[in-house]
Write a structure and sequence with these properties.
mainly beta, eight-stranded antiparallel barrel, 2 helices
Length: 190
């Protein structure tokens, strides 16, 4: 009986010593999604989304056990030219309302290197949900020198086919493939 209690105490202590994912919240002032596409073969046009909300459940010991959930308002798209932004919000593309969000929720993480991983998740864009794989890189984890709090930074890339999300107007003349570059910072939640 005594040995059973000791074994149970050891098992409980070992279980509580295992690190669990820790919650990090996105820093919207240092997080963005930049997109680019071919415009009629003449140029590469870019834009970005901002206005992030989201969290990362980050497990440094076992990154595959981590997860990410992010959302941003479609109307927070910035292209650098107001008539283009207005056109993207029209019936030709998003027909977006202030409430419409772009969302990404991870479904699995495959560690591919010391600081790299493939993050698979469900992307909802323009009311369509499709699986997407992000090639992600952990830039740094540590104490933020100004905030004095634990911080993490990540970059990721992927390519989307916009017609998959019912945004194919003017394809193939305007490129159907859209390159995505993501850079985010997140602070450990209190």
């Amino acid at each position: 009986m005594k040995s059973t209690l000791i074994a149970a105490a050891i098992a409980t202590a070992a279980t509580s010593a295992i690190a669990a994912p820790e919650k990090y919240v996105l820093d919207p002032s240092h997080s963005q999604v930049v997109f680019s596409y071919n415009h009629l073969g003449f140029s590469t046009t870019t834009g970005m989304f901002s206005g992030f909300e989201g969290e990362i459940m980050f497990d440094q010991e076992d990154p595959a056990a981590s997860s990410v959930t992010v959302s941003m308002p479609v109307v927070e798209m910035i292209t650098g030219w107001k008539p283009r932004e207005d056109h993207f919000m029209s019936e030709d593309f998003f027909a977006a309302t202030a409430e419409e969000m772009v969302t990404f929720t991870s479904t699995s993480i495959e560690v591919t290197g010391e600081n790299t991983a493939k993050i698979t998740g469900d992307l909802t864009l323009n009311g369509v949900t499709k699986p997407v794989v992000l090639d992600a890189k952990l830039n740094q984890v540590g104490e933020h020198p100004m905030a004095g709090k634990p911080w993490a930074g990540f970059d990721a890339t992927t390519t989307l086919v916009r017609s998959d999300f019912e945004l194919g107007k003017f394809a193939p003349f305007v490129g159907d493939e859209v390159a995505i570059a993501i850079s985010i910072e997140a602070q450990k939640a209190d």
